Amino acid sequence: MSLSAGCPRCSAPIAEWSDGSDHGWSCPEHGAVLPLWRPAEASYDAFVEHLQTAAAFPTYLPWPMSPGWGVTDFAVVADRPDRARATMTCCSGTSDLDGPVDVLVVTEEAGTGLGARCAGTRHDDPGVGEGPPAVRVRVESLQVSLWPVSTSGQTGEWDRSVVVGEAHGRWLWIVLRPASAMLLLRDEWILRDVSRLGPPLVETTFGGPRPPW
C-alpha cells in the first residue's frame, strides 16, 4: 500500500491495535481515531488507491484545472471503504498576482478534524453562517456559500485564507496560501467529484512539493 496511516487531527504517529475480535487505531494525543491515509508523494497510482479507499465518499478538485497546475497532495480518513469520513486534495500552481499558490479542499463529516488541521484552526467544527458569505463556489451543480474563518491568534504559519460552508450535509473547507490568493475565488470556481471522472485523470499532473499542514 502506497498510502501511510496517520492521525486526522495532528501529525503524531498512530498505532494499530487488535485484541483478536476487534481492531482499531490510536493516537497518543487524541486516543481512538479513524486513520488518515496519505501518500509520501502525490502520484497517479497513489491517487487511484486513494479513490478506492474513499469509495463513494467524494474527492473534490477544482475542475477543469488551469494550465500549469497539478495535484500535490491528497488524503482520506477511513478504516475501510464504506466508512470514509473525509477527503482532502491540494492543487498547486501560480497566479500572476500571487506567485506560487496552494489550494486545499477538504470535505468531511462533522467532528472529523481534518479541515481544522489543514486550516490551522483550533476547533474541529467551525462556527460559520453569520452575515453574508465571502464567496460562492459550485460543487457539481450545487451553489455553495462559504464564510471566512479567522486564523488570527493561531500558532504556526499564518499567511493563508480559510473559508468554510456546507455541501451535501458535510463541511466544505477551502484553504488558500498565500492569503491574497483568496481573490482567485472571485471567479466562479467549480469543484468536481473526480472519483467519477475517469480517463481525464490520466492527463492530470501529479507531484511537486507537498503543502504544510
General description of the model:
This protein is mainly β and 213 residues long. The chain has two helices and 14 strands. The strands form two sheets. It has an eleven-stranded mixed beta sheet with strand order 1-5-7-8-9-13-12-11-10-14-6.
Short structural description:
By secondary structure, the chain is mainly beta. Helices cover 8% and strands 38% of the residues.
Keywords:
213 residues; mainly beta; eleven-stranded mixed β-sheet; 14 strands; 38% strand
Q: Count every helix, treating DSSP H or I runs of 4 or more residues as helices.
A: 2
Structural class: mainly beta
Strand fraction: 35-45%
Q: How many β-strands, per DSSP?
A: 14
Low-pLDDT parts are none
Fraction in helix: under 10%
How far is the first residue's CA from the last residue's CA? 22 Å
| Strand numbers in spatial order across the main sheet | 1-5-7-8-9-13-12-11-10-14-6
Mean pLDDT across the residues is: 90
Biggest sheet architecture: 11 strands, mixed
Broad shape: globular
Q: What gyration radius follows from the Cα positions, in whole Å?
A: 17 Å
**Series of secondary-structure elements, N-terminal to C-terminal:** EEEEEHEEEEHEEEEE
